[in-house]
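seq as requested:
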Amino acid sequence: MSGVSEALSKLSFNSSSSGSSSSNDVSLSASSTDNRASEIRDVWAYNLDEEFYTIRSLVRRYNYIAMDTEFPGVVTQPIIQLGITFFDEHGNKPEHVSTWQFNFKFSLSKDRFAQDSIDLLVKSGIKFRRHEVEGIEPYEFAQLLMSSGLVLLDEVKWLTFHSGYDFGYLLEMLTGQNLPVAETDFFETLKLYFPCIYDVKYLMKSCGSLRGGLQEVAGQLQIERVGLQHQAGSDSLLTGETFFKIRKVFFQDKLDDAKFCGFLYGLGASYGTYGDQTFEVDASAHHIAQMLSRSPLVVYSKPGPKTS
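C-alpha cells:
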C-alpha cells in the first residue's frame, strides 16, 4: 500500500469509528460535482465593485484564501484570470458562492502571448473576445484589493500551489512598480502584503509519496475537481481543498508555521528572508523580478503548466 493510500485508509477508518464525517471531506460524486459548479462566480468589469462588496463581508470569517492565476505564457504581460476561494480554519466554505474568478482585460491583437498557452486556455473555455471587451483593468482590481481586507493582515492565510509567479504579478499590481531585484526587498514586500502563505507544492516535500502537479495530487487524494482545469476559479478551489486534505491526512490538522508559512516552491534555488526568518526557498526573488521585467526587449515563457 502506498503512503498516500495508507494515510487515506487510516483517515477513513478513524472517521468511520467516530461515526462522523469531516467537514472538509471533499471527495464527491460526479452529479454533486456538477451541482457545485455554481460555487464559482465570474467577475468582469461591470460587476467588479458589487462582488468586492460581498468579498469584504466574508473575509473575517473565511480567512483562508486559496489563489490561482492564468496568464498567456509570456510573463511580460498581465494575467488573464485570477481565482480566489474562501475557507474558514476548518476547511468549510461559504454557502452558495465560495469562489470568485476575476477576468482581466486582454487582447489577442495587441498583447503578447505564447500560442501554445493560448490554445490551452481556449480549450479550457477562456473567451478572449469577452476579455478584450469586458475585462477588468488591473489597476482597478488592485485598488479594490487593497481596501478589501484580504491583504496586509496577519490573520489572512493565503493558500497556493507553486506560486512564485502568482505573487509576483499580484505584488506588481498592488505596488504599481516593478518587483525589487534584491532578495531581502522582495521578501519584505511579500511579507508586508501577504503575511502568511502556505504553498501546497512546498508542503508536499513532507508528504512522502505525493508527487506531480495540482491535478495529479488531487487525484491521489481522491478530490474531485469542480469546473474546468486551467481556469483560475476552478484551480483555486481545487488548491484550497487539496491544502485542507493534506493538512488533515499528513499533519493531523496542525502545521508548524516556522517550517511551512512563507515558503515558496518553484523557480530555482536561493536563500531569502521572510520577516525575521532566513530559510531556503525554491524561488529566487532576483529570478522572479527578471522574468516579470516589463522591458519590451525581453520576452520570457513561463515554465510548463503547474496544474498538469
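Residues 81 and 251 are 31 Å apart (CA to CA).
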